[in-house]
Amino acid sequence: MTENSHVVVISVVRDRLSSGDPDDELAGAAREGDKDAFMHLYERHVVTIERYVRHRITEPADVEDVVSVIFLEALRHVRRYDPARARFRTWLFGIATHTVHNYYRRSGRKAAATIDRSHAVDDPEATALRNETVDHMREILTTLSQDQQDALALRFGVGLPFVEVGAALHRSESAAKMLVQRALAGLRRDFRQENL
Amino acid sequence: VSDDPTHTDERDLVDLYHATAAIVSPDYRDQLRTRLRATPIPARRRFWPAFPVPRLRVAVAAVAVVLAGSVAGVLGTRQAQPVSARTLLDQAVLALGSQQYSGTMVTNSTIAVASPFAAQSDPVEGAIEQRALQFAFENGTHFRIDVSWKTPEIDGGTVTFVADGGPLLVYDRRGNVYSKASSYGLSVFDLTGGDPLSAGTFGRFSSFGQSLARLVQVTGSKAQVVGTDTVAGRKADIVSLQDHSGAQIRVWIDHQHPFILKWQQADSGQVLTPGSFLMKVTSIHYGKTIPSSSLRVSLPKDAVNLHRQICVYSCSSAVSGSNSSWDSGLFPGYIRIPAPVYLDASSRKLLQVYLYGETFMLATAPPTISYGPTSYGWTDGRQHVVAFRGPYVYIQERIHVHGLPSTLKQGTRHGASPCVSWTRSLPGGRHGLAVQVGRVSVAVHTNALSESQLVAYARKDICTNH
Prior knowledge:
Shape of chain B: extended
Strand order of the largest sheet of chain B: 10-11-12-13-14-2-5-6-7-8-15
Oligomer: heterodimer
Helix content of chain A: 55-70%
Radius of gyration of chain A: 21 Å
Shape of chain A: globular
Number of helices of chain B: 7
Largest sheet of chain B: 11 strands, mixed
Mean pLDDT of chain B: 57
Radius of gyration of chain B: 25 Å
Largest sheet of chain A: none
């Protein structure tokens, strides 16, 4: 072996492109170290990830921190992403749920959602009533399990199909449906009690 | 929420639930974006570590060669004995995953694809692209590979890869464009029938070899040695395989090296319209005596330098200016074909639009996409099978220095220079459009638009905007 030695690897492989999911190509490139591809993935998913976190964490500043952690973790581990096991979005939401759980574990906070005042109307009485109702919802949400809150956030906050909700929570599709149903049943039951 | 708590239904709850979301300013996203851009993607462990010290690298290479020599010795011993089917299968599977040959080499190959788009009277349309070549090259590599690409109706041409001991040169005759590598290493050249040479072509690399166990699992019981043959003057063993889509594959493996000399494949037609793929090495020369003339490529004077770096790890640090590996903006000379947006509102209800850079677009009814276990040799571990059913529009942009290929200049001519179009009827109720705008050509196939609509699309959306 001399300094002129070399290695040539040639392979002919066959594949079909145009899978229809741009994430496939982007994630494939990101796994190979392509930062621009990762940044495209960031742009594609930051809003939905943020939506999930906004439904899971109270403090706006904490939302921003957690979203940042999620994407930095994704960047750090993107080479480990295995498309054979999950879609990229599902994998990303797996990181997101894990990060949110860590947030509550470390901060000792109780999971709750903050109040969105954007629904305020001109009628002060109606606004007060609305805020009070949202406050009730916030309180009731804290009584749900982390998984139930995750399921609600992924299903209704983000709008994921049940199959992806289940995948993000490492559960089956039917188990994800059951989580959501039970969470809704809990909310419904507690609202009744609040108003009795 | 209803005043009567017993009337609280799911929609009310969900509406109220939405109201509990925290409000954040999106400003932080800019900071996060900046932070992400500044944070490198950690390097993976590679079979061939990027040793910073050349002498250490040489030492490791020497060890690798000793090991390779041992393996070759073993193979040589085996070749003297009756070769078991299992040995050949393992060899074939290894070759399918990653062909590895240490030495100088000159080879010519042809690849022919019978595209489903050329299929007769079948409403199911599919897109087959070929991921063709992977190289790992180190400083001092000498090789030349000429690949002639033949895809009826859609594309065709030749791409030449030459490494003369220095940076790799890639010349794409299809578009009269070229690019040079700026660094050495392991890289994948994602040469497809559908895409022009681009930065993205070089944006990936994969590790040496693959999980043999996984590939054996994939091909496993459906593979068998069916005979021997001679390809390009080389003795070859023929292995028959079947992939998960049901496609029948035959590969001809060089009896001396685990190198594929020929690959013949026909899709099953279960999902896609039957198509076929044939790669054949027409000449190959192993060894150190490569004529220096074969390593010289005379670039035409008007050849366009893409100024795209061939990326080994990250194009983002290797590409100057705003052109990144992924969002590279307009490819030099390309016009970025516009989507026929009015189609979405038509009765045809084309539901999905796929836009892939400036190269091609598919607009279609919801496709059937199945994700199977791995295809051979690709690292993402699964195969995408896409079948487009119902109305579709396929649009592809290319640079053709000498104008539209004659196969596209058929039917009725419309317009005048510098924007000329041709329309024609195709089998299966389809219509075709070919547009020439200077050096750019656009080919369209559709079963959703009439010829007059295609002419209108060319006139309004392509010719007048460019």
